[in-house]
Amino acid sequence: VLSRVVTEPVGVCGMITPWNFPLLQAAWKIAPALAAGCTFVLKPAEQTPHTAILTMRALESLGLPAGVANLVLGPGATVGEPLSSHPDVDLVSFTGGLATGKTIAQAAAGTVKKVALELGGKNPNVIFPDAHYEAALDNALNAAFTDSGLVCSAGTRLIVHESIAERFVDDLVERAGHIVMGGPFDEHAETGPLISAAHRDKVTDYVRRGVEAGARLRVGGHWGGEEHQDGFFYAPTVLDRCDRDNPAVIEEGFGPVITVETFSTEAEAIEIANHTEYGLAGAVWSSDAGTCQRVSRALRHGTVWINDYHPYLPQAEWGGFKASGIGRELGPTGLG
Questions:
Q1: pTM here?
Q2: Which of 17, 198, 222, 244 shows its CA 20 to 30 Å from the CA of 28?
């Protein structure tokens, strides 16, 4: 008796990418598909079509056979959903928001195709009192405010030990207040605008509801100065005195906003960090290796960094638990 297991290309891959990091997100999906021998149909976010067009031109210049790399443009409702439900598409890979991800999963269910979803996060950045103070402080700023907070893995939930919280937050607020906002051609700019006026309004409402629920606004919470009124800017913002059920703590605001919570014990830190429907990424800061290992293993988040934040490694798989999605990208698993 001969039994043979054959690994074959999955077939036609539908790829739906978001407007943040549009070129990178497309590369994360296109590269493993081509390496595995699959064809694909790419649908970028309607706000960012140009990087996808240029990517397709670059692939065409490499001499790919006609029909291997395909591009469709348009809104999710009229293009993304039909792509997800099409019977000739064998797999759908989507990166974006939770609500849209649920819609795509429902559309794909009709043909029982494979689905990979990366749906964002509400990511804890846990600071123990024995952490390297300056490194933790610098990284807390970068974790939350890189790319104006428009990062699915942004460390926007700062969870600090109560013994250092007052000093840490005061220093964080001081530095956040001096971050320079500007456009892409401003050589002094440290952070830029949001994607649209509608998204800026969403972040504004998110902060307002957080304050109304009891959080204290320490810095930010506005659209910048007079020089920023021609763009969709939102100032780096810090909210402290947040309880774990505050909407600013629970919801993915997707903007330059840090919420601060405090803890007294290791067990409490773990409980607070896991008190979220998401589970994409997080970080633990401590000089004690045992603390780092115990807490990182206890956090229900797909990637947990230790004494660092955001060092993406393409050889390591990427993906989350719970509402952060299903499936994995990058690494050997990303080929499967």
A1: 0.94
A2: 198
